[in-house]
Amino acid sequence: MELNASFCSRKFVIANARVENCAIIFCNDGFCHMCGYSRAEIMQKPCTCNFLYGPDTKRLAIAQMAQALLGSEERKVEINLYRKDALLVVRERKQERERRTQRRRQLSLL
């Protein structure tokens, strides 16, 4: 079975909705790399990922995300999350995009 590159680059957690805090029961390597925590540190944390909140994480975004999770509804929420080393996760995503763009340019030159 061949997996496409976009699937392999996705970062995600899986949580148990049957327990009170919707505990995380799995996270992939991409998520661990993105946030700087080991899988063991992430397991059993709430699926709201409150351990990734920081000084610029807006209360409204936190409330919207919690409401969507509790109500089992789909919602797009922009939220600032922080890595274990206190760097903003968005910065890492931007750097990743820049690296991919640079690799494509290098490949097109070959």
Structure report:
With 110 residues, this protein is mainly alpha-helical. It has five helices and two strands. The chain has helices spanning 5-8, 29-35, 39-42, 59-70, 89-109, and strands spanning 13-15, 24-27. The chain has a two-stranded antiparallel sheet with strand order 1-2. Strand 1 and strand 2 form a beta hairpin. The two termini are 29 Å apart.
Q: For the report, how would you describe the main beta sheet?
A: 2 strands, antiparallel
What structural class do you assign from the helix and strand content? mainly alpha
User: What is the averaged pLDDT score?
Assistant: 82
As a whole number of angstroms, the C-alpha radius of gyration is 16 Å
Tell me the total number of β-strands. 2
| Proportion of strand residues | 5-15%
Please count the helical segments.
5
Strand order of the largest sheet: 1-2
The end-to-end distance, rounded to whole angstroms, is: 29 Å
Question: What overall form do the CA principal axes indicate?
Answer: globular
Features:
110 residues, single chain, globular, mainly alpha, 2 strands
Secondary-structure blueprint:
Blueprint: H1 5-8, E1 13-15, E2 24-27, H2 29-35, H3 39-42, H4 59-70, H5 89-109
Antiparallel strand pairs: 1-2
